[in-house]
Amino acid sequence: MKTFYVYILASKSRVLYIGVTNNLERRLFEHRQKLTTGFTKKYNVTRLVYYELFENIRDAIAREKQIKAWRREKKVTLIDEMNPGWIELSTAWHNGRDPSTGSG
Questions:
Q1: Which residue from 95, 5, 6, 90 is spatially nearest to 48, judged by alpha carbons?
Q2: Taking the domains of the chain in order of start, what are their residue ranges?
Q3: Domain 4-95: which CATH class?
Q4: What is the pTM for the complete model shown?
Q5: How far is CA 104 from CA 54, 74, 92, 95, in A?
Q6: Per-residue pLDDT at 70
Q7: Helix (H, G, I), strand (E, B), or coil: what is residue 48?
Q8: Does residue 93 surpass a pLDDT of 90?
Q9: Per residue in 14-33, is it b (16+ CB within 10 Å) or e — as a string?
């Protein structure tokens, strides 16, 4: 089964970036190493603060577009509900936990 992720990254000043990928760990590495020019490189948006899982790429893309169309305050509320402290969520992966379930 293939898994797709819709994710939100934030900078220290809470600039937001929304994306979709089939490999969240690899994509985060690309953002953090600034391997591609663009928004995340320009604004140093590298902290994973929210993500959702999907089994169908069409559903993931539709959700990404939906979130991107929202006003900023609605995006912030979405993040606050899952991650009130806006902590870096990928840290758990390096502690042996599965990023899709939060368990090890």
A1: 90
A2: 4-95
A3: alpha beta
A4: 0.87
A5: 20, 32, 9, 8
A6: 98
A7: strand
A8: no
A9: eebbbbbbeebeebbeebbe
